[in-house]
Amino acid sequence: MANFIKWLGAGLGFTLGGPIGSILGYAVGNLIDGFTKGDVERARAYRNTSRTSHSGDFEISLLLLSSVVIKADGKVDQRELSYVRNHFIKMYGEQRANNAFKLFKGFIKNNKISTRQVCLQIRQNLTHASRLQLIHFLFGIAKSDGFVNEAEVNSIKTIAGYLFISQYDFESIKAMFYSSSESAYQVLGVNKTASNEEIKLAYRKMVKKYHPDKLQHLGEEHVKGAEEKFRQVQKAYENLQKERKML
Q1: Alpha-carbon dihedral of residues 163, 132, 209, 179, nearest 10 degrees?
Q2: Locate the J domain: which residues (predicted)?
């Protein structure tokens, strides 16, 4: 119990308050035997005496929004659960991932999560680059069972809107998870009629927007996660270079 309390408290800032704090309390109260209101207060106290970290806030936000997308099509697919768990193990290690999954199971079972309220709290406290990374991860979950269905796309689109992610950025990230002749153009946010110079400008813009260094404040584990998104931008540009024989 002590390790879990430390994990919950360490680095969690805005997530122990507001609507997300209420959801956290519900999850731990229903899933962890012997977890009391006093334990929540100890987690809060531990947070206040620890070094503040945005990583914990991002982590809880990721779990909450993942649970929303996983339930979007009316069923919980084991492949999607495994995707989340494996990525958390990869990012944080076995012990921290196990603690996170205790909460995640509670989020999955909670049918009263207000996506709008959760997203408003996230939007007020996480950077734009962090919110872009959340959307990328959510599409990864949706694709983990082999394809992204309409219900999942609509769920992620709703989340993106609440997070103030533009349609332009949403379509760019979405295109990273589809294989088509137009995907490379969509990733860079241009159409097939764009000139080579326009494509080069779009590429430079995306490089700045999706550069992994923008997530340095979240820690090395999230920088590595952002590298995949960055590579997809580079791959899209390289494909267009070959297709158009650009110099």
Answers
A1: -130
A2: 183-245
Q: What number does CATH give the domain 179-246?
A: 1.10.287.110
May I ask the CATH architecture of the domain 36-177? Orthogonal Bundle (1.10)
pTM recorded for the entire structure: 0.79
Q: Where are the domains of the chain?
A: 1-32, 36-177, 179-246
Q: State how far the Cα of 65 lies from the Cα of 142, in Å rounded to an integer.
A: 12
In this prediction, residue 2 has a pLDDT band, given cuts at 50, 70 and 90, of very low
Alpha helices in the chain (DSSP H): 2-9, 18-31, 37-48, 54-70, 78-92, 94-109, 115-125, 128-143, 150-162, 167-175, 183-188, 196-210, 220-244
Q: How far apart are CA 61 and CA 120, in angstroms?
A: 11
